[in-house]
Amino acid sequence: MQNKSLNILICGVGGQGTLLASRILGSYGARMGYDVKLNEVHGMAQRGGSVVTHVRFGTDLAAPVIEPGCADALVSFEQLETARWQHYVADDGVIVTGLQKRSPMPVITGAAVYPDEPLAQAKSRVRVVDIDADALALEAGDLRAVNCVLLGALAKHLNFDDAVFLDALRASVPARAVELNVTAARLGGEKIS
To answer: For residue 154, is it within any domain?
Structure first.
């Protein structure tokens, strides 16, 4: 990655582990010797609102924010968030998304309708890797490991150094949750062909 940055946008709703995912990726980039920039936008995270994190690592980074159309990857925890943020992904980028559907407040109140095919537009434009991350997290031992399932898939797709990635993951989660999250990441990675 000489004189190039890797730009990853992470999106989801409050409580899904998006911020931990960004810290794991930032730790990976730092361990690989790159300049790392993170920018977190919490919104109404505590009330289930949108959470977006920009993660950039590379050489000579000037700003932490990814411009629309410039993300190499989007990691999304929820399908509507995928649809909402997919325009940030470059034409040769990838979207790694969970299949979860969480209705935002306008859908809950009846002011809006959850789309039937929220991933359709993204799939017509870029590679979309959709994973039943909830099921894999439960297989690993805890639904809260969805973030590591998705990161494992992303790391495999982007050919991350496996040992360095797992070291970054281990350093970012509590000791009691290391084995669970490593298992979740491995299960996610196995879904990439």
So the answer is: no
